[in-house]
Amino acid sequence: MTDTSSAVADKIRCDACPVMCYIKPGAAGACDRYANHHGELVRVDPHIILERTVSHGGRLVPFQAGGDWDGKIVHGPSTFVTAIGAGTTYPDYKPAPFIVSSEVDGVDMVTVVTEGIFSYCGVKVKIDTDRYLGPETATVRAEGEAVGHVTTSEYGSQMLSLGGVHHLTGGSKKEGRVTCDTLMDLSNGKPVELTIDGGATVVVQAGHAPVVNGLTEERMRVGCGSATIGMFAKQWQGKIDEVVVVDDHITGVLSEHQAGKLLDIPDTGIKMKGRRSTPGRYFQVAEPGTGWGGTNISDPLAILGPFDPKTARPGLTMLMVSTTGEHAAYYQLDDGLRPVETEMPDALKQSVARIQENCEPALCTVLFMAGAGGSLRAGVTENPVRLTRSVKDALTRVTSGGAPVYVWPGGGITYMVDVTQMPANAFGYVPTPALVAPIEFTMRLSDYAALGGHMESVRPLSSLKDNAELLPWPRPGPIPGQGG
Ligand code: SF4
Predict the structure, then answer these.
(1) Sorting pLDDT into bands at 50, 70 and 90, what band is 2?
(2) How many angstroms separate the CA atoms of 481 and 483, rounded?
(3) What local confidence, expressed as pLDDT, does residue 1 receive?
(4) Residues 6 or more apart from 299 whose CB is under 8 A from it?
């Protein structure tokens, strides 16, 4: 229930966001978050309180039932009031929907919760795959609309940056709506199909394997080609004359690599295409693609020149393998010093299996990124900059749906949160368009008073009991504000 409404005839006007819907009895507003229930404006989803149970190593504290608050702060070390379902206050100068006191280990704490409306937010997507998804800065589309771009790849993963104010508000109406839907679906853990200009189509779902051009990715690379040589050189010593680890970024060659030199592996006369970086490390052996090691090749011999007859000899053996072990082939040089593929010996099959074993499962990671350093702070304190300082001074802990967030250094309260750490369906939207996401600020009650908090709005946990739903604490680690 909220008091942010006014009635016109039998309609209620919701003023929880700038859209200001008039809502008929029995109907919901444009965002489906608020509804007119017998003339009363109600938040449709339950307000979520997380509870740690004995199975999480915590103490079970019964949710206080019945009776009016006696003025004492409720002792609730195993419960945490999230902002999910709490509602939004608009405009921001009004106190946040719930400012809830609790006592933890003898210390009076307060948690300020609100469902923030974020018009500048976005998601950073990490896709564990070697496969080429598209050129850096290429536009990423959903339903044909531009929703973001490809950014720098990182350590065996391809990265996308989606959303942000330019796509939410700076393009066409449809672009804004599709961007909002895409961000909300990804943040709520749903699968979303994205197409990349000049690149691949990929289905992304937080915590699940990516599907690239219809193929489910299984593993992320063990390392670059050079790192793979470094890791496994000793296991190849004495079993093979040459190993090439094919990689779009850094292809490794055992006999030339420092690892091979230290192990006294003799030269083989191999000749690589591409650009030699340092010994045994080659860049740009092929174009990027969805073939061997994130290159566009299906025949690895395409990256070799002719063997040097002064060094090479007939019968010389060579393993070519990709950075995931997904592709591998074994060769012997014939009398003309040409590699001929033959049956791979068991010992080498085991080394390929070892590479595969060391590759972690490929997953998609979705980090929601938003800023709480703006007007939202006014719902917490009448002097907003003090909240920012309190966060920077580590006096105030920021969480999103109870999940820990990373707050960026520098100005503002710009944070990122792993959406898989949050309870299901924690995100909503308003059609401005903007995402609605839970945010909580937890601090000592004395610090809250010192930063100019809305002390008159502080209420005990027990006052929430009628409208709240208790869910089990979804993850290990301390509850915010309890030493974590
Ligand atoms: S979009 Fe939702 S929050 Fe905004 S006014 Fe309408 S019902 Fe209220």
Answers:
(1) very low
(2) 6
(3) 44
(4) none
Residue 103's pLDDT band, with cuts at 50, 70 and 90, is confident
The model's confidence at residue 471, banded by pLDDT at 50, 70 and 90, is confident
Query: H-helix or E-strand containing 231?
Result: helix 225-236
Test site for ligand 1: of 34, 37, 432, most ligand atoms within 8 A of the Cβ: 34
* Tokens 């700038």 sit on residue: 18
Tell me, what DSSP letter sits at residue 221?
-
Distance CA 24, CA 474 (A): 37
Distances 219 to 203, 232, 245, 263 between C-alpha atoms, Å? 16, 18, 16, 29
Closest C-alpha to ligand 1, atom 2? 31
d(CA 211, CA 205): 9
Nearest CA to ligand 1 atom 7: 29
For the residues of 162-222, what is the DSSP string, one character each? EE-HHHHHSS-HHHHHHHHHHHHHHHTT--EEEEETTS-EEEE-BTS--EETTEE--B--S
Structure tokens at 334: 């014939």
Give the pTM: 0.85
Ligand 1 shell residues, CB under 6 Å: 14, 16-17, 19-21, 29-31, 33-34, 430-431
* CA 192 to each of CA 159, 204, 234, 277: distance values in angstroms, whole numbers, following the listed order: 15, 5, 43, 39
Q: Environment class of residue 444 by beta-carbon count within 10 Å: exposed (0-12), middle (13-18) or buried (19+)?
A: middle
In the reported structure, the alpha carbon of residue 429 is separated from the centroid of ligand 1 by a whole-number distance in angstroms of: 9
Ligand 1: residue of 4, 13, 14, 118 to mutate (most ligand atoms within 8 A of CB) is 14
- Measured CA to CA in angstroms, residue 153 lies from 57, 149, 192, 440 at distances of 39, 12, 20, 32
314: cis peptide before it, omega within 30°? no
Average per-residue pLDDT for the chain: 90
Which residues is 215 bridged to in the sheet? Answer: 212
CA dist 77 and 103 (Å) reads 7
pLDDT of 74 higher than 70: no
Which segments of 164-250 are extended strands (E)? 192-196, 201-204, 211-212, 215-216, 242-246
Query: How many of the other CB atoms lie within 10 Å of CB of 392?
Result: 15
Atom of ligand 1 nearest to the CA of 432: 1
219-266 pLDDT, tens digit each: 888 899 999 999 999 999 999 999 999 999 999 999 999 999 999 999
Q: Are 2 and 417 in contact (CB under 8 A)?
A: no
**Residue 304, helix vs strand vs coil:** strand
Distance CA 394, CA 416 (A): 16
Directed axis angle between helix 346-357 and helix 225-236, to 10°?
140
Model pLDDT, residue 53: 63
